[in-house]
Amino acid sequence: MSFFKKFFNKNKEEELDKGLEKTKTGFFDKLSKAVVGKAKVDEEVLDNLEQILISSDVGLETTVKIIERIEARVAKDKYLNTEELNSILRDEIVQLLAENNVQQLDDFAPPAGKKPYVLLVVGVNGVGKTTTIGKLANQFQKLGLKVVLGAGDTFRAAAVDQLEIWANRVGCDFYSKGMNTDPAAVAYESVDYAIQNNCDVCIVDTAGRLHNKINLMNELTKIKRSMDKRLEGAPHDVMLVLDATTGQNAIEQAKHFTAATEVTELALTKLDGTAKGGVAIGISDQFKIPIKYIGVGEGIEQLQVFNKTAFVDSLFKGKS
After folding, report:
1. Are 109 and 139 in contact (CB under 8 A)?
2. Which end of the chain has less Cβ packing within 10 Å, N or C?
3. Which whole-number Å values give the CA distances from 103 to 53, 98, 120, in the listed order?
4. How far apart are CA 15 and CA 26, in angstroms?
């Protein structure tokens, strides 16, 4: 491995460690208090651990799975001391995430054989959707790919302007029909622009309103159908952007959007600003949709490809 690659990987590791610091501190402070004075993992320790996982926004369903696995270990080994609990917990979380059987990406490169690669981005207002699109466009540009951003959020004030600012900042192409226009038409014409201008990647934004399920489904279906008319198979991916700071509300949003359309990947933002990073574990487990990207800071470079092992290693670093 070259010096520059080692430096790059080290920097990413440090960013992830810093981004998870609030989650790590909150979780392990609670855990240490739960086991103080305890010589072994007993029913009381497990009850406390269950409450800690739930309060860390891992989610009830996923928490129950983790506790049941640890209970099975306790029953099998007969005696487990509390010093072993961190390493056991880490192992069980790694195994749980590995069972999702999703492809682990090494970098930001789009799938081979798709040009233009078309990505439709969905999510409610305020989750960092536009920022994530801009950061992702920056990563694609760094790979030498030609990118166009399509301004399909045509109803929110300043949404089009914000996306154009990101396009200018990144140095990529931008397509818009302005405010209060048909999002499906914007989606169609953005894909057409990408084809006509030999773009490698086309990222289309959508309105961030959380409608009732029927209206949301109808709108997203119309947008996807419009894209497919211009390029068969488009969009190639639908990315749902979720805000980690909202904890369980992020899981509720995921339920809503996955019921309305076929979400193929997730981006989890603002991990650095919350103690609720455990939500990544619950979302990955419950929806079996890959978390593809995580935001670990406000900087343009602070978007990372999600690596399950690196995430858990960072969470437990120095704690086992």
Report:
1. no
2. N
3. 26, 10, 20
4. 18
